[in-house]
Amino acid sequence: MLFGSRAKTTLPTREEALPGRDHRVFPVPVTHEVLGTPLEGPWPDGTEVLYVAMGCFWGVERIFWKLPGVVTTAAGYMGGFTPNPTYEETCTGRTGHAEAVLVAYDPAVTSPELLLKAFWENHDPTQGNRQYNDVGTAYRSAIFTTTPGQAAAAEATRDAFQGVLTQAGRGTITTTIASAEQAGPFWYAEDYHQQYLHKNPGGYCNHGPNGLTCPVGVANLPAQTDIAPPQG
């Protein structure tokens, strides 16, 4: 399977991007199909949100909904210009968005470091505007943060994992790290994309352990440090 092969491999400017629209043109489920929690909130007090992009959002979302401490996950589009984009528009590369996953989590149970450990270990962050068979800017690797702690963890884990990649001869990380404010809104994807691999267990997924371990600071990790990252 080769998804996105016709997509642009360079990001459009704001002027080049598709115009989009001022409202969402498709339904989004109220409740997470697996976790039973609100997809768009409200969530318990203290919940924090991290956004990650690492290729096709189907497999990415499944990785994160399995992790302890995660309140909810959702598939969507982020980092581009087109308001209220559709899947078809995003796949053209003309919205500027990456396929992204919202991860709402309880910081008393997990941490940005643990979440990002799963991020680095379950895709190849050196591929630029692609992820294996999926080609185009929509499949780029990115982390969009909402707290100073997340931003610090993103940079620290990136640097730590780069050392592991270099030692293994795997190349240089191309992952974008930016604040969610810089990246722009997270636009929820269509209902059929939400928890797609739960609804379609045999569906397409190219995510899973890449064979490398991201070292993280023990002082920053809750008790789940011995939990292996789930396969996509």
From TrEMBL:
Gene3D superfamilies: Peptide methionine sulphoxide reductase MsrA
UniProt GO molecular function: peptide-methionine (S)-S-oxide reductase activity
Keyword terms of this UniProt record: Oxidoreductase
Catalytically driven reaction(s): L-methionyl-[protein] + [thioredoxin]-disulfide + H2O = L-methionyl-(S)-S-oxide-[protein] + [thioredoxin]-dithiol; [thioredoxin]-disulfide + L-methionine + H2O = L-methionine (S)-S-oxide + [thioredoxin]-dithiol
Enzyme Commission no: 1.8.4.11
Active site: C56
Enzyme class, first EC level, given as a word: oxidoreductase
Role, per record: Has an important function as a repair enzyme for proteins that have been inactivated by oxidation. Catalyzes the reversible oxidation-reduction of methionine sulfoxide in proteins to methionine.
Family as reported in the entry's similarity comment: Belongs to the MsrA Met sulfoxide reductase family.
Protein name: Peptide methionine sulfoxide reductase MsrA
